[in-house]
Write a structure and sequence with these properties.
Three copies of one chain form a homotrimer. By secondary structure, chain A is an alpha+beta fold. The first copy, chain A, is 11% helix and 24% strand. In chain A, a hairpin with a 7-residue loop joins strand 3 (47-53) and strand 4 (61-67). Strand 1 (2-3) of chain A pairs parallel with strand 2 of chain B. Chains A, B, C: One of its GO terms (molecular function) is oligosaccharide binding.
Amino acid sequence: MFSSNNNFQAMGREKDKLIGKSCKELKEKHGFDKDGLYYLKSSTGVIYETFCDMTTDGGGWTLVASIHENNINGKCTLGDRWTSQQGNLENFPHGERNWANRVIFGSAEGATGDDYKNVGYYDIKALDVSVWHVPNDAAMEHWKASAIIRYHTNSAFLSLNGGNLYELFQRYPLKYKGGTCQTDNGPSVPIVFDFGDAKSTKEMYGPSTYGETEPGYVSFRVFNYEQTPMAVCSGVKVIGCNSEHYCFGGGGYFNPARQCGDFASWDWDGYGTHTGWSASQKITESAVLMFYR
Amino acid sequence: MFSSNNNFQAMGREKDKLIGKSCKELKEKHGFDKDGLYYLKSSTGVIYETFCDMTTDGGGWTLVASIHENNINGKCTLGDRWTSQQGNLENFPHGERNWANRVIFGSAEGATGDDYKNVGYYDIKALDVSVWHVPNDAAMEHWKASAIIRYHTNSAFLSLNGGNLYELFQRYPLKYKGGTCQTDNGPSVPIVFDFGDAKSTKEMYGPSTYGETEPGYVSFRVFNYEQTPMAVCSGVKVIGCNSEHYCFGGGGYFNPARQCGDFASWDWDGYGTHTGWSASQKITESAVLMFYR
Amino acid sequence: MFSSNNNFQAMGREKDKLIGKSCKELKEKHGFDKDGLYYLKSSTGVIYETFCDMTTDGGGWTLVASIHENNINGKCTLGDRWTSQQGNLENFPHGERNWANRVIFGSAEGATGDDYKNVGYYDIKALDVSVWHVPNDAAMEHWKASAIIRYHTNSAFLSLNGGNLYELFQRYPLKYKGGTCQTDNGPSVPIVFDFGDAKSTKEMYGPSTYGETEPGYVSFRVFNYEQTPMAVCSGVKVIGCNSEHYCFGGGGYFNPARQCGDFASWDWDGYGTHTGWSASQKITESAVLMFYR
């Protein structure tokens, strides 16, 4: 009575649809124009499923990653895949290395409830990024409407950096003491808002950060005073050195330890208080979804 | 010599079989009647593979989750996905939230060796649940025969609670101090045994628990004296307040800390001793498999 | 505008290719002869993707697992899936049990950046193993060329041990105090080198280990002085009892604790120093890829 056959073959039926390497290819070559889940096939032949934004600014945006803070009190503990899950360790200067390796985790539908990284993160060759801050645990069909911020770049900056974030972070490694504040930061790229605006985005972070940031950009590999690199500063260009209060992701060591974690030290002056160096509760409790096009 | 093509397309061949949203649909619409692995397709288009019980009480049961205690001495540490993996934290009152989010983990064949949760957990709209307690590391082809307890509900109680456990736990959140013992417990539903019986199931838990439980039910969201909610009490209705000794899963904080974990405090009077408040070794070393129909 | 259909069906198109249970079957029955990713289908109907080495010694080698040391300073902490992730615990004598259960994790392309175990590990019936030591984070297309050591067995030893490592470790359980050094070790099997040689492989481990090993073998379930079993000793036969310095994987308890972890105590006399009992940096920073044929 135990079945060793299965019904997988059925998936080849129904009306034929075509497959591509990215949402952009699905949109441009095959005309798919609805937001939702699609299957993609990597250049090495991996077939995977992710969310395509087929409508913003002409569509063709592929979801490749989400950064979700599961427990801001857990300082570089389980769930901090975009910094370190090993504790705050000086002899672990690169942290988990997930910004710059081919390890994948999570699922598209779970992207607001846990970290997510798919094959597209390192496989797709793209020009621009789009970023959404979506409240934790929002269901996929509500992501777009519930996002508190949505923006994209349109300068093709990725083409100068290897075509995706995997390649960008080969060029700008995230290593403790791999550079110094202001001097060795990576690119800062102007953004166009699809929901929200530059000023309100900047002001999601703590009031004490306002003097350190210029709104209207997305920035990569930004060092702080203690020479810890952070991966991404969303919505802002960085003109100061306390980036742990408004950037996310990075290497494996922060100083002091209570700054270690995917959302670093967004809670420095209390969780979600939006006073001093603390970000608002809204942005602290939103996952960051990253797309390529 | 490096292949960038692959043979995935072959899966569309062989004799066509049909695909559905649940094992029930596969059984009713397409006549599949053997236990085993099948592919399902969610309402959002996710294709995933899980185990279907196609024979018990007419069949059509979809495996959607397993709760596996990997280390009862690890108190809310790695592997306690159904409570907390962050340690026992008062300021983490919801725990991992996996009962009420769309995060998935594990694989069907690995469901007796680690936790499992698939897309069906939140996608399938069902009427009833079935529960199997299967010895750890049993191979799939032996699950049914080796289960120490198997039962199902037949009152369509899920239809009153949103159609699945994801929805039920939206209605009955698992939050520390979100309610009190006896007063705020969720539904308790009569069960029909497919293997074992009500009395022997109840008596798998420690002798000291007998005065607190009535056999022949499955219960959801049960608070203990310390206001910690547990997710499921398998086999029993709860008439006491020491539910940490016979319920599993829940929020992120237990008091005292040694009660924290997926199987909570089933080892209070020693591991597997079946004396005092301790459950039998048999049920402690079995994974709990949960099905919908 | 939200799509609930998807384009998965497209995968049934293009020219038909055939599917098998192992890379060997794909090679022998269907003539695939390029290294790369292929889809396989298990005896229970699970479809999964892994890397096939289609060229070494006639090809037909299926990648089933990788052992990757993410942080040798983390002693049986997160990432030590092949020993224990629960800390070094005497009452956790079997550790994670992943050598002997059906839990799977990781992805083929991520196999040099994190641990990997697929369905083939327990499903495929094979005769021999092949082992590659590949530098961490190497991309799949460079694995073969960048490997520091590659070898295979050709004595069909797996046929005497159940046909795969899952079965072998049922016969030779990895349990602390489950045996003693020298007396209860598992099989030691001669190897043929595909890249590198026996002597240089042995000499990747610390100079102090040379008196304890004979080059030209791969060995399984080897106990040390403290009765801790290790899973695999790559490149060597073991004639001593300090196996924690040149074997990997194993149970959940080591004595002292600083020997606990996937690469055990390869760093005893400093990380990557290649002095005393410490292995070279090269082998310490390489993932071990395991294939069946």
